[in-house]
Here is the input.
Amino acid sequence: MLELINDFLSGKVLIVLIVGLGSYFTIRSRFVQFRHFTHMFTVFRESLRCSTGQLSSFQALMLSLAGRVGAGNIAGVGIAVTLGGPGAVFWMWVTALVGMSTSFFECSLAQLYKRCDAEGRYHGGPSYYIQYGLGKRWLGMVMALLLLMTFGFAFNGLQSHAVSHSLNDAFGVSTTYSGIALAVLLSLVFIGGIKRIAKVADLLVPVKTLTYIAVTLYVIVLQFDHVPGMLLTIVKSAFGLDPAFGGLIGSAIVMGVKRGVFANEAGLGSAPNVAAVAQVEHPVAQGVVQAFSVFLDTFVICTCTALLILLSGFYTPGFEGDGIALTQNSLAAVVGEWGRVFISVALALFVFTSILYNYYLGENSLRFMVGDNRKVLFGYRALVLTLILWGAVENLSTVFAFADITMTLLAFVNLVALALLFKVGLRVMRDYDDQRRAGAKVPVFDAGKFTDLDLDPQAWPTTPAAQSPLAEQQPLIVVQAQR
Here is the structure.
């Protein structure tokens, strides 16, 4: 029954929602993901000036990549290629391309409607823009519950299962011992809250991402003469034009969209929870950063994994096996047995940071539902650690099917909310664009222009743009230029 429901929701509803609405957002915004692509480097540079004790745009990006760059980039791509053929990779690209605009708007709205608590920390996400943007707290509660069940619980168990079995395959380590070790290390980070999680992500995410890309690029370079032909095979297979994969066009589309969404999370409403925590001068600045996060996750990392598999010679049509084993064996076929070990270590790092991210999403959802209740938060931490131990040793096929269903429901609620708030998102985007056209290097949000919206005055005080800390430095620059 779960599989029937899952096939309908993720095979039909999810494709229409993600690709359809993502395309609509892209066209109506005049292809915002392309117009602001290079601008994100300016946003990073300016974020280094953040000295308020809040997270910067760069830290928020690292934290979101901690979740996006996870088992989906290794196991998910392997599953997509196994069940959908090379054409699934093309549909992952399509999903990411339109998903960049979706992520832009959901993260911009999360920044716009974020709230500041008594300790000066920011909180936000889909539940917040549903409550304060649409005035529907009940729907915000539904969103928070779905997010808690999907990321806080189900996905954490799945991530633990993936890494424990990978380590067992590569090193012969007992799944019980690896589950205990993972739970202990995570508990040390959980105690420090969002700031400690961000610090760990700052350290591990660049290391794990760059190392993984470097090794996969090494394999690709070794067989570079086959890359153009393989890219052509990916495109032809996506439309059923390659005889070897002609019967997989339906599976290619379904698996490409499903695994693409699982990998980059655009439209699910997960990344906005992290995007809202950052200290930025304008909500759109964080939308720009998070759109790039989708690009990096899918077009760079997932493509590296896909080419690693397809160029290795290990994969053949009709391959039977799990995604992790396929990726491990593909790398080992090219570089030797150390490739199998490398994938296990890389997956362990990917999973560790992903669980930190998933944990925070669940905690943020709990705060929305029950407030800052210490006993409830402590109970949540204990339950997450228990699920990590359980996931390490149990078969989670049923949990995976359940997680796919709740993920689709998440996308449904979030994308409907985004569609209803799209005019607000466009309005904020145009304010940002107008300031850039007027010559502003760092556009500053003036809440005085948006008094009709239910914004938090502590997060966005009604202050003229000229009083912004970054704007104060601009006259000095002008004077120096005149001299």
Summary: The mean pLDDT is 82. The first helix runs from residue 2 to 28. The longest strand covers residues 115-116. The chain has one domain: 2-471.
